[in-house]
Amino acid sequence: DVVMTQTPVSLSVSLGGQVSISCRSSQSLVHNNGNTYLSWYLQKPGQSPQLLIYKVSNRFSGISDRFSGSGSGTDFTLKISRVEPDDLGVYYCGQGTQYPYTFGAGTKLELK
Amino acid sequence: QVQLKESGPGLVQPSETLSLTCTVSGFSLTSYSVSWVRQPSGKGPEWMGRMWYDGDTAYNSALKSRLSISRDTSKNQVFLKMNSLQTDDTGTYYCTRDLTALAYWGQGTLVTVSS
Question: Is a pLDDT exceeding 90 seen at residue B99?
């Protein structure tokens, strides 16, 4: 199985600040069809995860441009700028290139 | 709009079989795939398996021997059955609409395995 390693485990940020979350995969996430199926999800307390970014850098419908994804191969980054209170929760990266789909262990974003 | 809703028993006895239903609206099961994902409390999600839009299925190899996913397109429902449940199967179970990513999630249903 592809192992997804997220760092850091937790982050403290001031409102209005910027943060980056790293995600590394144990194998390349480039699919045979040329696409890279790396996604980012946010799970707010008591809620289901919600999709933020798909295929590395594409924002899902309704997602603010304060969220941006980048990376290639095995190294990926999620950046959040101008952090707002509604951004707090646990962020997960996930890969859909190879079965079984796998997720990172999560990065908890908290207020400083 | 796209909606998914899980239903099923909240409590299952050890060694028994779990049966869950995902009822969808706002899209067709013959156009989109649906995946089941579970999440133990305080841990990351685990992908369990998928019902493809064409009726084919894919399973997490770690669960394949215990898991079955099926559907009834006329009722807009996808079903999950998993046997021989143990306490470490406790968690929240979600169904999700699955394309290039898990784009839409149900509210989840908490399943507790306990005698």
Answer: no
